[in-house]
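Note to self: the last two entries modelled the partners one at a time, which told us nothing about the interface. This time every component goes in together.
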Amino acid sequence: MAELLQFLFSGLTVGAVYALVALGFTIIYNASDVVNFAQGEFVMLGGMVTVFMIAAGLPLMVAALCAIIVAVIIGILLHRLAIEPARGASHVTLIIITIGASIFLRGLASIVFDKQFHSLPAFSSDTPIHVGGASILPQSLWVMGGTIVVFMMLYFFFERTKVGKAVLATAANRLAAKLVGINTSMIMALAFGVSAAIGAVAGILVTPITLTNYEIGTLLALKGFAAAMLGGMGNPFGAVVGGLIVGLLEAFGAGYISSDYKDAVGFIVILLVLFVLPNGLFGKSSVDRV
Amino acid sequence: MNFTADKWKILAALTVMVVALTFVFPSSFYYRVAALIWISAFTVIGLNLLMGYAGQVSLGHAGFFGIGAYAVAIGPVHLGIPPLLSLIIGVLLAGALAFLIGRPVLKLKGHYLAVATLGVGILISMVINNEAQWTGGPDGMNVEALGIKSLLKSMGWKVKTAKLWYWITGIVMICGAWVALNIIDSPTGRALRAIHDSEVAAKVAGIDVPNYKLLAFVGSAMYAAIAGAMLAFMNRFITPDAAGFLHSIELVTMVVLGGMGSILGSVVGAAFLIILPQVLADLQHYEHMMLGLIMMIFMIFLRSGIVPSIANKLKGRAA
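The predicted structure of the combined assembly is written out below.
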């Protein structure tokens, strides 16, 4: 029982990070139909910039804020310089562009920062909390709490603000959105910015537990993409559930089956789910007009 | 369009290129890089059948490449199977796996297809990384020689390894192009193109869509496996990177960069992406940045690929 609880805690912690990455995917996908494989790089930037700002003598909160701002700027630049000029290109072309961007950002990070692993101090305390024979780090609670806060804020943003509704309108029908006076290009830049901020937050929250390095983005992006797909592409709720499922499966797979194949579990489940439900768990089945 | 005439033109161009380059290459290094290009080009020609003709994307083809490579590595070392037989078994294995997973995977569309093929590729590379007692894990493993060099030697013909593999890979690549061109110029090829244009229309016209997609998937997987085996034999060493996600992406980029559906483009795309790191190697730390930047720039400004873009320019001028 204690064992089960332990796996549950670690699964929810990693799962929360995947959920944030998947949310980032979803926001960009909804606004622009682009699957952004550079999403993992925002997570990397969040962690790395914070680490180096703290090394430069800034307090944690200021450093974290700087990291989010840097990620947002890069996210908006990514849209302006790479996605916007390629408007109308095929899915594959856009996938290659975002992968090119992720390789570029990784290379840039290895030069601007370094190739070492870095850690951040835990936000509150390092002493594990004991629950029912299992233990959980306070930082894990920060990660889970942060994910919930981000999700709530997004919910509020999309449901209660005019700009949020404009993003949804753009996602639903770009042409119609344009016709009612929404600056869709601006909305897309906004989506990239918001998505980059979410990625950076994930990176800042999780670095005290998992460490960070210029290369961590790749696998995070793949798993975040997988999680978003599992939940049904374009569905924010599905993204969070998908992320948590992938995280939990990994933790239980590593605990009960084999830690060597921890990373495989998520992908096997995704393949099985897609074979049965080709549109993911919460995706609407689409009917193509011919 | 006159495919038959085009076919011989393309094959002649490739043959002239393979032969002519041997007159200008100053050192073994050039032969080695060129052999790497022919190997990648061979894979890309196969993948182009799937992407450029059947219109299905695969982000996991390095996995099949890895199966071919590790088959010729594991067969002789662990199981005592002769190298050539190992190659055949490896290619059949890759084909069988593609056949098994192809039907459910190819039912998916767009990004779901991308994530499924990506998952398949990653699972294959994870198995290769983790089963260290068979594959040597992340450190890679040595590969026994195919035995062509010693065979030639026993016949009194001494030839350098780099040059030998230049010719083997070059000839195999031309054969691969010939087979692909024949497929394109057949009822199967026309069916595949119809599927690319519109799956529904193809179905209405009586084309067995799932079967043709599966055929292209299995064929391209076997192409990749053959290429993987060639790489393993040439380098006499193989690491899991050959089956990794980044290699899959390189292959897809080669297809799109050269031009979807263009056989000549497959070779150009492969050449570009193999030569680029060699040129950038002098920049050391900036290599990855430059690679990412060039990928983005080409995809933004030359969307339809190098060869089709040039062909369109030439046509525009003639008209």
